[in-house]
Design goal:
A four-stranded mixed sheet has the order 1-4-2-3. The longest helix is centred in the first third of the chain and has 26 residues, at about 1-25. The mean pLDDT is about 80. About 35% of the residues lie in helices and about 15% in strands. The chain starts with a helix and ends in a 22-residue tail after the last helix. The protein has a domain at about 55-145: 60s Ribosomal Protein L30, Chain: A. The protein is α+β, with helices and mostly antiparallel strands.
Length: about 240
């Protein structure tokens, strides 16, 4: 009889323990838990990735009544980039309050004529901006919105101390947050076509003449590889020595 009673008590105790174990996860819902620290990317390409963004592309011009070849070339390159990557309108901002306001007006007219010759006159919005110092050169600014490669964040931010003397913060042997940001920004500025970051370009047509010449050499049993004849120079004979 006692053995049966102890067995029943054991079963009841086991049932209560199982119930408490099932309720334990629910009891933790209202408890404030400390989250683990955020994982900081150690690779500068992960901290400062180069992304495609809808950003402003602008150039500053210093035209006179007649545009020189350098200024004309910069405007034509600007128009080409607008036609490839831009959308919306081109904004032309003329300075107001400059010393030679008459010359500025003539330069703006020359820029507008060249834009019209390039076929984008209907997409140009002309506005003005005030000059803060009349003694400084005031540029004519052209800009448009379009796809451009840039770094996702800003450079020059220092969220943590490099070597704190009052705490152990910054004592771990890792790269600092701003490391690599300038290099990534320089890389983004050098990318000619931002779409190359997304997918490779299509293959260009094959050189038929080169292909047929190589096939002909193979048929004749000759080496189809290109041979480069390099003429060597005796360094001792340079300078008449």
């Amino acid at each position: 009889m006692s053995i049966r009673l102890n067995s029943e008590k054991f079963k009841g105790l086991a049932a209560r323990l199982a119930c408490l174990a099932a309720m334990a996860p629910l009891a933790g819902c209202g408890v404030n838990r400390t989250l683990p620290p955020r994982v900081v990317a150690q690779d500068y390409r992960d901290r400062h990735p180069v992304v495609l963004a809808d950003a402003t592309t602008s150039i500053d011009l210093f035209p006179s009544h007649r545009l020189d070849n350098t200024t004309s070339g910069r405007i034509r390159d600007f128009v080409v980039r607008y036609q490839r990557f831009g959308h919306g309108q081109i904004t032309l901002l003329a300075p107001t309050g400059a010393k030679d306001q008459l010359g500025v007006r003539g330069g703006v007219d020359a820029v507008k004529r060249l834009l019209a010759e390039s076929g984008v006159s209907g997409a140009v919005y002309v506005g003005t901006y005030p000059v803060s110092d009349p003694n400084l050169a005031a540029p004519v600014r052209l800009s448009f919105q379009g796809v451009r490669a840039k770094v996702a964040g800003r450079c020059g931010e220092w969220p943590t101390d490099l070597a704190s003397a009052s705490s152990l913060e910054g004592w771990d042997n890792t790269t600092y947050w701003n490391y690599g940001c300038a290099s990534q920004t320089t890389l983004a500025a050098q990318i000619d076509d931002p779409r190359d970051l997304v997918a490779p370009r299509g293959e260009s047509p094959a050189d038929i003449e080169s292909r047929m010449r190589a096939i002909g050499n193979v048929r004749k049993g000759s080496d189809p590889a290109t041979q480069w004849n390099v003429k060597g120079t005796n360094i001792s004979s340079v300078g008449g020595g």
